[in-house]
Design brief:
Elements: H1 4-42, H2 47-84, H3 87-93, H4 98-138, E1 148-155, E2 158-166, E3 171-181, E4 185-198, E5 203-214, E6 219-229, H5 250-263, H6 268-296, H7 304-331, H8 336-357
Antiparallel strand pairs: 1-2, 2-3, 3-4, 4-5, 5-6
Helix pairs in contact: 1-2, 1-4, 2-4, 2-6, 2-7, 4-6, 5-6, 6-7, 6-8, 7-8
Length: 360
């Protein structure tokens, strides 16, 4: 059962966290307004849309983004204050062990970790859709395309090649579809000068096509000017907009990754990193909480200032480590799961070592 001292620590922990995160969100919003106010005025963005479609959905994204960092800062700050006021000594001399004193910290960290998991997997994706729709309408955006010479695997043994794709008009030029049998070789080959996406029927209209059907003893060639067909290919497959993953909840993202893996997508690693990050970041909240307590529960000559310095150094080291490891995943074929979880594993050992060395 939680005691009065547990509720006191939980109140201090969560209160400091939400106060700190509220202050940084206000600062971020102030900078964002100064950066985008010209676009808002130029595009006649309604005030209601700015407040409710953009900034109301803007807040959960940044709360989750800064959550691990400000969890760590909150722990270091208020625990350092407890240490400076000799409250930690009073707790330990009151027949409460150091491990037992960690209980309210772990409970608070689990609350914030659960909040982060819920935000990133369930609340933020639909909120991002509203926010990004607002940005596309009232703020300048840049569309990203894969460029030229795109190769896709549509299904096992089925491949597509597009020389160039226009993402504004959803038109592909010089489309080639090949279907292979691993025993017989090439079965069919379809070439079209142009493929236009039909948004009503969710199909493709091929212009000036040539179809080759290869059998055991003969080959059938069919030509035509127009052909409507369904292909396991969507215009979004030609976008390099990795922000698409921000619109997906966990189950949708998992299905998308599975489908992209079949197609042999070149950008699948970004989606895999995002999927693993959504579980690794909440777990990091617990690890950073333990490190924060271990660092700030010891009295030092510098007091709160030195605790905050050490805490910020460790937190930025964690963020830097995360960026380096994910870069290895995207640039050096490092396994995404290992890339995302390596910082947590390393800092878990650091947390264990600091807890072992902390005076109890």
């Amino acid at each position: 059962m939680l005691k009065i001292i547990d509720l006191y620590i939980i109140k201090k922990f969560l209160g400091t966290f939400f106060l700190a995160i509220a202050l940084i969100i206000l600062i971020v919003i102030a900078f964002d307004i100064s950066e985008n106010v010209d676009d808002f005025i130029e595009n006649n963005a309604p005030l209601r849309a700015i407040l409710f479609d953009y900034y109301l959905n803007f807040i959960p994204y940044f709360v989750n983004l800064f959550s691990p960092l400000f969890t760590f800062i909150a722990v270091v700050y208020f625990t350092s204050r407890l240490t400076a006021n000799t409250e930690i000594v009073a707790i330990l001399t009151g027949r409460i062990s150091y491990k037992r004193m960690m209980l309210p910290y772990i409970v608070s960290a689990l609350i914030l970790a659960s909040l982060s998991f819920w935000l990133s997997n369930f609340l933020i994706p639909p909120a991002n859709k509203v926010r990004l729709d607002f940005e596309n309408k009232y703020v300048k955006t840049i569309k990203r395309a894969r460029g030229r010479n795109v190769h896709l695997q549509l299904s096992p043994g089925s491949f597509a090649f597009v020389e160039r794709f226009n993402i504004d008009e959803n038109i592909g030029y010089k489309l080639t579809l090949e279907k292979l049998d691993f025993k017989k070789g090439l079965i069919t080959k379809l070439h079209a000068d142009m493929a236009v996406w039909d948004t009503i029927n969710n199909s493709w209209r091929l212009h000036n096509y040539l179809l080759r059907e290869i059998g055991d003893d003969r080959e059938i060639i069919t030509r035509g000017s127009l052909k409507d067909t369904i292909i396991n290919m969507h215009p979004n497959d030609f976008r390099l907009d990795v922000y698409l993953m921000d619109l997906m909840n966990y189950s949708t993202l998992s299905k998308f990754i599975k489908n992209e893996r079949i197609k042999g997508s070149e950008s699948i690693v970004f989606y895999e990193i995002e999927q693993y990050r959504r579980t690794a970041f909440p777990f990091a909240t617990v690890i950073l909480t333990i490190i924060g307590v271990a660092v700030s529960s010891r009295k030092t000559k510098g007091g709160t200032g030195i605790h905050l310095f050490v805490g910020l150094t460790l937190s930025f080291a964690f963020i830097l480590f995360m960026q380096i490891s994910t870069t290895f995943a995207t640039k050096a074929n490092f396994p995404p799961l290992l890339a995302v979880w390596t910082p947590n594993i390393v800092f878990a050992f650091i947390a264990a070592y600091l807890m072992y060395k902390t005076p109890k």
